[in-house]
Amino acid sequence: MAQGKIALILVDIQNDFLEKGSLAVANSNSILEPVIDLITKVKCKQGLVIATQDWHPSNHISFASNNSDKQPFETKDIEYDGNLVTQVMWPDHCVQGTFGAKISDKISLDDIDYIVQKGTNPRVDSYSGFADNNYSEITQLAKILYQNHIDTVIVVGLAADYCVKETCLDSVKFGFKTILAMDATKPVDSNQLEATLSQLKSKSVLIQLCSEIEL
């Protein structure tokens, strides 16, 4: 059972990650109904709803279009602040100010207490809602959770094997009891889902169906 004050984190539920988007996750529209139900339940319990939003400049290093030697979904080793990281080359997505970057209009902005933008640095990618992939910059997410005396974090959104996974792992690192609502997320690569869930369980993330989460 969830204890203390609760926050629901909506990870990157944006048009480009939903079906027909430029980086569409398969069957992603199916998460909208359970996510909306969870929002209603969390708001009824005076919990917090926070949305993360990929917000990339058009010259972002992760875009295959900005790396002439690579095709989408290939990888490339990129140096940032002295660290060499393997970067997936993505199709252009969630470019600042575009329709694809907007949070789905199926989710009422009135129900969202905070929006945390990430991926704004053109030189480094940012999967987690808490920090970029190099931990060079920390977002406002942890501060918001601490200031609102949050104890338990429920994570939903896209995609399970990238931004959702990293947000869950960081949530644990920052000291929050963390629950992944597994029927409110979908992976980019379905073959990686079991490995992703196993990794999260090994780091003390609770994996539950929305119906099993007690608020």
Describe it:
This protein is of the alpha/beta class and 215 residues long. The chain has one domain (5-57, 93-212): Rossmann fold. Helix content is 20%, strand content 25%. The strands form 2 sheets. It has a 6-stranded parallel sheet, sandwiched between helices. A two-stranded antiparallel sheet has the order 3-4. Strand 1, helix 1 and strand 2 (48-54) form a beta-alpha-beta unit. Helix 3 (160-173) packs parallel to helix 4. The termini are close together. The mean pLDDT is 96.
CATH structural fold name:
Rossmann fold
Order of helices and strands: EHEEEEHEHEHE
Morphology: globular
Q: What's the CATH H-level homologous superfamily?
A: Isochorismatase-like
Query: How many structural domains are formed by the residues?
Result: 1
Query: Treating each run of at least 4 consecutive H or I residues as one helix, how many helices?
Result: 4
Helix content: 10-25%
| CATH class designation | Alpha Beta
Strand count, sense and barrel status of the largest sheet are: 6 strands, parallel
Question: What does the radius of gyration come to?
Answer: 16 Å
- Give the strand content: 15-25%
This entry's quaternary arrangement is single chain
The whole-number mean of residue pLDDT values reads 96
Widest sheet, order of strands: 5-2-1-6-7-8
Q: Structural class of the secondary structure composition?
A: alpha/beta
Terminal residue distance: 7 Å
